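Posted in: Structural Biology > Protein-Ligand Complexes

Title: Requesting predicted complex, guanosine-5'-diphosphate in pocket

I'd be grateful if someone could produce the 3D structure tokens for the following input. Sequence and ligand are given below.
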Amino acid sequence: MTNLTLDSDTIAAIATAPGEGAIGIVRLSGPRAVDIAGRIFRPGKRPDAPPWQPQSHRIYYGHIIDPDSGRVVDEVLVAVMLAPRTYTREDVVEINCHGGLTPLRRILELVLAQGARLAGPGEFTRRAFLNGRIDLAQAEAVIDIIRARTDAALRLAVQQLGGGLSQRIAELQQRLLGMLAAVEAVIDFPEDDLPEMELNSLGRQASEVAEEISGLMRSAFAGRVYREGLRTVIVGRPNVGKSSLLNALLKESRAIVTDIPGTTRDIIEEYLNIDGVPVRLLDTAGLRETADPVEKIGVQRTRQALEQADLVLVLVEAGRELEPEEKELLNELDPQRTILVVNKVDLLEEADGQAAVSGGGRREEAAGRAPVRQVAGTADDWPGRVVFISALRERGLEELKKAILDIVHSGQVAAPGEGVLVNLRHEQALQRAYLHLVEVREAVHRGVPLELLSIDLRQAWEALGEITGTAVAGDIVERIFSDFCIGK
Ligand code: GDP
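-- Reply #1 --
Done. Output follows.
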């Protein structure tokens, strides 16, 4: 169980992004939110307006007044939402002012002077969790929504906020409780031994739940891809067209990029949006190096990027035999997650075209459909996917994207189930629950004492509970919310 406490402070923070904007919001939550706002807010246009007695879910026009000087700080709209129908389930007041740093900071200072406390990162959402409005998986979905890079990622995160994963977990927990009840009934009344039949059924149920859990674990990879992007590296010799390909892809499919606080931005990263799948191009700076490729492959950074990659695009030139280092590289890579991209097919076609013209024949092989033999053995031995493109002419890009999506959707990176966005934390908890259930299944076969069965069932139940937060240590919760921005 959580050992988190909920204090009765009224918290305040600037809820909008720093910098200039049309509107900025100072948000308050807690028992004194209305009282504190009321001390600095003058409703309406007249200085002699009657005392402010706001109703819930209304917006009030007026001015923020510095109570010390009596001076007007800003013209504002104040939204009042009284508990419990609010984000935090507490009274919430949002002061909408002009979106500059000075008005926002002045208003924040005033509410702090009136007794509010500055909110910590994610403290509003933390309160929503502690007050039982959302569970932990839903709270995590809030960050996923804020950081979603594609519509598909956003849709998944919104479903998760709606309780997609939470429901699945609750169902599994319910089934474990049923099993636990059956076992404990017998432990409590040892004279009615658990009949053979029930034991078998217990083993079977443990297998079924374990199977479902492993299904959820399989979607963890997809969850990461939708949250963080498919880690993709473009690698190849100098002048093979890596930058040209990158630019051609970005031109069509650049995804929205958000800065994630706490992540280093010293490597150049670009995001593509390929049919809703965020594709994160890694270490493109390193790839622009024009060092000798043999050395280059040896370069720590490239090697690291290749190791971490979900997908590697190996770029080679059409009409040219593979260089030894290219062969070596391909040998090292897993064909399941590597695409051999043969670039500059236009050059080949021109050469062929001329030959064809002089021979009076007809040539219209499109990029992407050029036969393998055309690249003179370049791709013949490669067991993985091959795509022919011309980065310069922007041809074959659709085929390339299709090949990327094939990899995404085949096996490993299956599209996650509806509303299921499993993250690393969830995956680890699922893994533990799974192992306990495997233990239960084995124990049933070995005829282990029921007490031990019940311990494993209970631990499986608790591991699942960590996902939604019904059974989770306080420090884990704190870590999750510290990842949020202040004001959320
Ligand atoms: P990088 O060193 O691998 O990043 O290669 P670049 O993208 O800088 O390309 C090297 C040269 O090849 C440039 O002159 C490009 O215009 C040219 N190039 C790239 N792609 C193609 C292509 O598909 N066809 C042709 N004909 N030239 C290309």
